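User: I would dearly like some help making sense of a protein record. This is the protein in question:
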Amino acid sequence: MKKFVLLGLSLLLLGSLHAQELVLDFQHQNGKYFNFHNIVEASDNTLIAQCPLFEPYSGPDLGVVFYKISMEGQLIDSLFVPLDNVPLRTLFEPVPNESGSYLYARFEQDKNDSITCLKMTFIDDDLNICNETNIIIEDFLYDYIITSSDLFIDADNDIIASYWCSQKFYMLRIGLDGTIKNRREVESISASLMIHERHTGMYDKSSPKYYYIGRDIGGSQANSIMAYVIDTSFQVVENHRYYIYQNGHFSGGFHEHIIPFDDETYLLSSRFGIFQGGEMAACLAKFDKTHGIKAIQLFREDTNSPSPIWTAALSDGTVYYSYMTDTGYNNRLVLVCLDENLNIKWTRYFLEPDMFHWATCMTVLHDGKVAIGSYKYMEIPGSISVVIIQDDGGNTLEMEATIRPYLFYPNPAQNELLLQYSPDIKPRQIELYDLQGRLVQTQSKNLESLNMAGLPVGTYTMRVMLEGGKVFSDKVVKE
């Protein structure tokens, strides 16, 4: 087992009687994180995070790293699996019905040999490699580009893979032993979806069907979302075009995915452009099996580019929805808890500019915990972050369940410190103290910003008082 050397490890642990937020941030000494693909909850009550690491298409560490993390935020172990080629699409999930076994599968395109393989690596709780299997998927001419679409394990415990090759769309069913059970060209899928993001996911587990969705770029209905319902033999049985608002304010989106909610409904998440005003919004919609809208919730932000991360639906009707307020740097990570009708129960904001550059995955853990993974893009040394949020089942008000239900930035600040509050929070007053504990400023109006222009350079304590008497203290720096 080839282990991985870490540069640094930092931990932020905040607690209350009702909830806990844990932020873990760590780095590798060489190379760049290229993504953060998934977090799984291991059978020994730990987390295993999977992240590709390489300088794009070259570099000393071309491969994937697995981090084993305790629920208390300790880095227990790590494993580096070298790759011969840059992966096109990856899967990392627990092996069904096998406790303590996990599958890392990926498309790899070997341009020298003109083949594309699905490679499967099985690891255990201790990050030992137990087995590896390579499956040749396509033998193609170098001029023909293959593009992977999706990779997931379905309700029959088979790997479902989909990809484009020579402008043709294929789906495969592969057993966990590496046996190709079915491979079929799906001729009904429109090639106009090929060059855009798409997701093939399980739609209906009781009567298994798969969804293939993407942004259509052709014809008079360009930029709408087109969805194909595919049965288990990989035949298209119906198709549907989504217009969330029939008045045309919304066109198609991206970062989209579909998940089942129950036997009668499913959830569609996407990012949509609102033509009036040029805004962008993250959108979560609930549909019945005739594709009629049952409920809808929009998430708008001042940044104009909210980006969905993932959606999870629990058996009790609780829905978790995560998104970034923007993509790139200085992002705010947002986790929303909704009921079965997509009414918001609570919202959590996290602002850690050095951590949340590109949040890409979310996993619901046991006991009401949610883990979200983020990584720094194209930096050396790169770093990844894992956020763990504890929920008490919705019995606590937001102001009691959240350690800090507001954002403040930039920090350090030169002239003005901005504050953004969770939707159900009402601030009453802000006080600023110097390091000697002396009150230097009080503000009870316009509490979305704090004027620091006339203050001496240094560190201050900001006390934010909320309606109801809750008080939070934070260190802020004037530069």
User: Anything to note?
Assistant: The radius of gyration is 24 Å.
